[in-house]
Specification:
Number of helices: 9
Strand order of the largest sheet: 4-1-5-10-9-6-7-8
Strand content: 15-25%
Order of helices and strands: HEHEEEHEHEHEHEHEHEH
Largest sheet: 8 strands, parallel
Number of strands: 10
């Protein structure tokens, strides 16, 4: 029997949504997911390195048909790459590794929707900058309980506490969900005019206003701690008073309808800090972003 042969019995794929080969093949895929299992720059509770595997495992229980959107998300084709090997040296080197990996897939053909599954939120830097290479008009929607605008934190400017600051040095950024930040961050944001929607917001039309602040091509970066800990406690730095699931989806839906989402990341799931349901929620969010971004009706 050839080494590549397998017995003719059912097998369960280990990719996102457990898709069969024809729907998981790169050539057929509208979206590519890159697991980035890093948490070397976490500052409170570690464990985000286990997030990508937990999200992929939980995704196998999702229904492929999306009731809200009215189509089977799996039919879009989703290719899941192997996990990106962490670089345990300078976080800048890991940023460059993420950038190289994302740039490759984002640049294939007309460009596939390329998403990073983190890992700590430092993964957003390399991913966002990779998309900027292919979309010079890029703006970034940065959804997080924290501003992540420190110039450096715990000895590095390339960790999760500086992600938004590094991205903002290259393209416009809008922060949403912020409810905790250092004084130095607040002063810098106010002085430079960075667009911020602090949370909770009194603006009932926040989703439309945020979408209008963005350019035509949008990269979406989500730290799961933007959700209230009652819904998502499985994160490195939980912060009370957060967004609720319907509020987050409303925002993402408006952005997808009014702008072109070209890439994204979902970061900071620390599965050991929560229940299996929280990994499932994170997987559902990845699924919903793909559905919104690739919807045939938007």
């Amino acid at each position: 029997m050839p080494e590549s042969s397998v017995p003719p019995v059912p097998w369960t794929p280990t990719n996102f949504l457990a898709l069969p080969p024809e729907q998981a093949a790169l050539d057929n895929a509208a979206a590519v997911l890159i697991p980035v299992p890093i948490d070397s720059t976490t500052s409170y509770r570690s464990g985000a390195r286990y997030g990508p595997a937990a999200i992929i495992a939980a995704s196998t229980a999702l229904e492929d048909y999306d009731l809200e959107m009215g189509f089977d998300v799996a039919e879009l084709g989703i290719h899941t790459t192997p996990p990106l090997e962490p670089h345990v040296g300078d976080p800048l080197q890991m940023t460059e590794r993420v950038r190289d990996a994302v740039s490759y897939y984002a640049g294939i053909g007309a460009g596939k929707l390329t998403g990073v599954i983190g890992g700590d939120h430092s993964a957003a830097i390399g991913s966002a900058l990779a998309h900027l290479e292919h979309h010079p008009e890029l703006s970034v929607l940065y959804i997080d309980a924290h501003a992540d605008f420190r110039d450096a934190y715990q000895g590095t400017g390339w960790g999760h506490g500086s992600s938004a600051r590094r991205i903002s040095e290259h393209c416009p950024i809008t922060l949403v969900g912020v409810r905790a930040l250092a004084q130095e961050e607040r002063e810098f944001i106010d002085a430079t005019g960075i667009s911020v929607c602090y949370w909770p917001t009194p603006n009932s039309d926040y989703a439309r206003d945020i979408a209008s602040s963005l350019g035509s091509a949008v990269y979406v970066s989500v730290d799961l701690d933007v959700l209230d800990p009652s819904e998502m406690p499985a994160v490195g730095t939980p912060e009370p008073g957060g967004m609720r699931w319907p509020e987050l989806l409303l925002l993402l839906r408006h952005v997808a309808q009014e702008r072109h989402i070209v890439g994204f990341d979902v970061c900071e799931l620390a599965p050991n800090e929560g229940l299996p349901a929280h990994a499932y929620t994170a997987a559902k969010l990845v699924y919903k972003i793909i559905a919104y971004a690739c919807s045939p009706t938007y």
